[in-house]
């Protein structure tokens, strides 16, 4: 009997496979195609000859963990303890999985806000929990009254994703005020804040749970070096949580992967001494603005993009097809791969919206846009 009988192959896998088969430009899966910073690759080259090839301590490479405390302090003015409140993980996905497995039990309910990243629900199901999926408003803002109405004594966790994949929406101060009031009413609820795109924001800057004293003592924050430094294939992220939660998360982590790739940890530890995370948003804003300008003459309607490296567009003026079929035809007939937004909803809500990844070099964006403008 399948533990995930209602879960099929990820839409990211499906679309990337089709893109390869049809030699299409892959703007579907969220990975950059431009070179990694040479400063980082030079560090890796030097480290390969050093003694960094054996197991690190279970929670992470100590120098890297110390650098994470510095990074969080610099970015959010929060002081955390490296030994008790940090866990280095095999990508953010493993951090989310370990956290849900550790903190959600049989019969516990977990609120997930749709459209949502596709790993959340399977993680809850594998913990014998019950996903409670609530759709965001049509402008992708949360309806806190509906969310509060869904909370009960059974609610163990609320998962938020900020900046939000797939929509690029960012939570506001008023959202956090509502969230603080909600959790005050339900003191047993744990917040899991997926912030993997925290450094990829534009006009409106990212607000992290790290900056919210009323929330952070009951929050698990998920971050990703893969997203921040466009090294997604390294699969390296980190979790920050108060000690009473982290103790439980580490119990799962030690039997899942035990420790994360040692060379990657050592390299990122050194890289953090010379890289400026404050500039990452500016880099991707140029990508966003370039792609939006290139699509300006197309028949697609561009939705706002406040963060992440994803652009959501409406194809309502082009076709009445459902978004999955439209994306498949986009690959086979026009040579561009995208992700249908309906697959991020529990009920597969079809709003004629698709998602493009603009974390690509300019030549790729220009050719993709040329093809899209011909539709």
TrEMBL record:
Protein's name in the database: Methionine aminotransferase
GO molecular function, one term: transaminase activity
PANTHER family assigned: FI04487P (PTHR43807)
Top-rank taxon: Bacteria
Domain Aminotransferase class I/classII large positions: 24-372
Cofactor(s) of this protein: pyridoxal 5'-phosphate
TM helices/strands, residue ranges: none
Record keywords: Aminotransferase, Pyridoxal phosphate, Transferase
Pfam families xrefs: Aminotran_1_2 (PF00155)
């Amino acid at each position: 009997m399948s533990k995930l009988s209602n879960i099929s192959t990820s839409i990211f896998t499906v679309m990337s496979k089709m893109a390869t088969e049809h030699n299409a430009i892959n703007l579907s899966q969220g990975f950059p195609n431009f070179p990694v910073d040479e400063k980082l690759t030079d560090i890796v080259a030097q480290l390969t000859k050093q003694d960094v090839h054996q197991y690190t301590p279970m929670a992470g490479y100590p120098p890297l963990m110390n650098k994470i405390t510095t990074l969080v302090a610099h970015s959010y003015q929060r002081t955390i303890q490296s030994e008790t409140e940090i866990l280095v993980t095999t990508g953010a996905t493993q951090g989310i999985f370990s956290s849900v497995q550790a903190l959600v039990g049989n019969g516990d309910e977990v609120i997930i806000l749709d459209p949502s990243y596709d790993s959340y629900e399977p993680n809850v199901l594998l913990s014998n929990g019950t996903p409670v999926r609530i759709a965001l408003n049509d402008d992708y803002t949360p309806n806190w009254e509906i969310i509060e109405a869904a909370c009960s004594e059974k609610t163990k966790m609320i998962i938020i994703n900020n900046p939000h994949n797939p929509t690029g929406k960012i939570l506001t101060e008023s959202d956090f005020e509502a969230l603080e009031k909600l959790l005050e009413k339900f003191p047993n609820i744990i917040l899991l804040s997926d912030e993997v795109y925290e450094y990829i924001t534009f006009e409106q800057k990212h607000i992290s749970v790290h900056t919210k004293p009323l929330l952070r003592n009951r929050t698990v924050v998920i971050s990703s070096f893969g997203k921040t430094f466009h090294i997604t294939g390294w699969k390296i992220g980190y979790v920050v949580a108060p000690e009473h939660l982290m103790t439980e998360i580490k119990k799962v982590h030690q039997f899942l992967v035990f420790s994360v790739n040692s060379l990657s940890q050592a390299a990122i530890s050194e890289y953090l001494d010379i890289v400026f995370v404050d500039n990452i948003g500016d880099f991707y804003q140029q990508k966003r603005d370039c792609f939006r300008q290139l699509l300006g003459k197309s028949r697609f309607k561009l939705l706002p993009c406040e963060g992440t490296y994803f652009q959501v567009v409406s194809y309502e003026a082009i076709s009445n097809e459902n978004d999955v079929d439209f994306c498949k035809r986009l690959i086979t007939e026009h040579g561009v791969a995208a992700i249908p937004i309906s697959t991020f909803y529990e009920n597969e809500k079809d709003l004629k919206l698709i998602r493009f990844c603009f974390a690509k070099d300019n030549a790729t964006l220009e050719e993709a846009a040329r093809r899209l403008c011909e539709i």
